[in-house]
């Protein structure tokens, strides 16, 4: 699951593009970029991208693109959904420590009242989508993993079913759940396009 259509890539790039404001633009972590069509579109727009790819068949092409650029793209072998696994000892790729990942990216911790130090873009896999959303939410309330460094802007493609759960209103039977309440308290959910 990745973006393969250049037109969709341009739409996503426009949604992710921020007007230049004071201070440096936050880093953009793109997980599972696949063949890199969105990655190339983001790079063409002048956005600095860190690509976190776990599929070895796409990794070589992304690394080749990285080598042809002057630091605008950084490619890391890793799986976003295997960040900070609950095991001790050395991690075997594609498992990644968020601390090591952010150190490599040059992201430093900022207070939660400061601007967002990191933007993340990716497509939620079909399998275990609800579990993955819960894990992201637990990390938010525990202020660990990707949230250790401050607020994070998550730009995710999710299924329509999960989007309806995340945005449900009280009284919407079947859709309004504990996940709904916790997400709406801790996050601003916005349909970008």
Automatic annotation (TrEMBL):
EC code(s) of this entry: 2.1.1.-
Q: Which residues bind S-adenosyl-L-methionine?
A: 3, 53, 79
Pfam families noted in UniProt = RrnaAD
* Top EC group: transferase
Q: PROSITE patterns in the record, alphabetically?
A: SAM_RNA_A_N6_MT (PS51689)
Please list which residues make up the signal peptide: none
Give the GO molecular function terms: mitochondrial transcription factor activity; RNA binding; rRNA (adenine-N6,N6-)-dimethyltransferase activity
Q: Which UniProt keywords apply?
A: Methyltransferase, Mitochondrion, RNA-binding, rRNA processing, S-adenosyl-L-methionine, Transcription, Transcription regulation, Transferase, Transit peptide
Coarse class of the primary localization is mitochondrion
* Similarity remark: Belongs to the class I-like SAM-binding methyltransferase superfamily. rRNA adenine N(6)-methyltransferase family.
Task: Return the protein name.
Answer: rRNA adenine N(6)-methyltransferase
Task: Report which gene this protein is encoded by.
Answer: Tfb2m
């Amino acid at each position: 699951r990745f973006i393969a259509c250049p037109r969709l890539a341009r739409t996503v790039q426009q949604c992710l593009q921020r007007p230049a404001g004071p201070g440096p633009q936050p880093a953009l972590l793109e997980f599972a970029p696949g063949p890199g069509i969105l990655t190339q579109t983001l790079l063409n727009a002048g956005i600095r991208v860190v690509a976190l790819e776990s599929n070895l068949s796409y990794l070589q092409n992304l690394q080749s693109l990285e080598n042809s650029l002057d630091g605008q793209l950084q490619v890391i072998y890793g799986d976003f959904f295997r960040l900070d696994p609950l095991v001790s000892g050395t991690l075997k790729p594609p498992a990644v420590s968020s601390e090591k990942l952010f150190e490599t990216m040059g992201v430093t911790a900022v207070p939660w009242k400061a601007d967002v130090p990191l933007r993340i873009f990716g497509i939620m896999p079909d399998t275990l989508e609800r579990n993955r959303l819960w894990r992201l939410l637990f990390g938010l309330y525990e202020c660990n993993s990707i949230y250790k460094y401050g607020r994070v802007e998550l730009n995710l493609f999710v299924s329509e079913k999960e989007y309806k759960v995340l945005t449900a209103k009280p009284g919407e039977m079947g859709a309004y759940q504990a996940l709904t309440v916790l997400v709406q308290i801790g996050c601003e959910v916005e349909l970008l396009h």
